[in-house]
Protein: Acyl-coenzyme A diphosphatase NUDT19
Amino acid sequence: MNTALKHWKEAATLILAAGHRLGPDSLSLRTPLAASGCSPQVSSGGRSHLPHRSRFDYDILLLKRSGKSGFMPNAYVFPGGLLDSSDFSSDWLDIFESFTEFPSFGLRSVRQPAETRPPIFATDRLKLGSPVPGEVALRICALRETFEECGVLLAVSKMAEKSVLKGSENAFATQQHNLNHLDSSELSKWRDLVNQNPSNFIRMCRELELVPNIWALYEWSNWLTPVGRYGTKRFDTAFFICCLQDIPHTLEDEDEIVRFQWSTPAEVLQSFQARELWIPPPQFYELSRICCYPLLNDLHSFAFQRATEGCEKWMPVIVFEDEHSISLLPGDRRYPLDSSEEPEVDKSTDPQQKDPQDSSALHHMVMSDPYTTTIQITITPKYNHLLPVVLTPTHDSKSQL
Structure:
């Protein structure tokens, strides 16, 4: 962990997509959206409508945080949590023994120049005393937290570990590489132990002869908590995405997480607009991007191919105008030049423009209340990422789907 950070705690989260069967009335709607105009391109409003939920052949896992939580109570979020010192432990070298000869334990190299990489990915962990590369530790954290919070264990049997580096482009994280030999009661016992002490995740992998499937997690984005938005807690979070062929068995932790649900991205956004659930801005933005691919195979192929491009550090800068909260994102004409750590309040109300020619550049979220959010974007996403589907606020959001 990077204990030198002043304002943020490092964290990792996992966008988990899992396939489901389409109903017979949906078979004619399985044309990929990419073929009908959802390829990344600059427009004043992105796509103007949300794909119908019947077009999706997969669900996304969301967990509802406890109302007693000290951070974003009652929010529906992706599984994830804080990095722990055990995620960087040298004990992992034994677990990953077959992969330590490969750079980053066999993870694909990112083409993004080192000087533009977000600090959470670029930090030299060896200089901080960890023999485990940051890209590996962040994925271990995301997998550990997913197991802790919902009981989904994404791991590879030692007997199958040699196959994980072969042909991963066309392979989902298939059935967690046949962990069916593990008794559910045994996994439940280990889950309790990992919840008690994160270092037990290492012990579990050693005793059950498992390797965390870090190779199934593709780098997706990096979000930082804005200043003063959610109390004093702030997080620098690496977002990963993973695609499963089928929905796995899920268990609530009955502590921080009070319920979970598998829903299509369209259903989640619909429920958000209908004020049936609340999702934080990063979840809203990422689900809006994911809506560009209603077919799991297309989403997986895109995520796999895009992951080696890298990503941009996004720390929203909040300004207030006409009773609206506006969350400025990098690339917006009003995004401040200095957004590192704690931008001055007066600077965010009168931001500096990077270039006079960028006067038309928009990249922000407008929130008139917690359930009414719109994305305004005219820029081309960096690192070959997706433009979000843009929702139009409506009092009858269900009529859109």
Remarks:
- The radius of gyration is 21 Å.
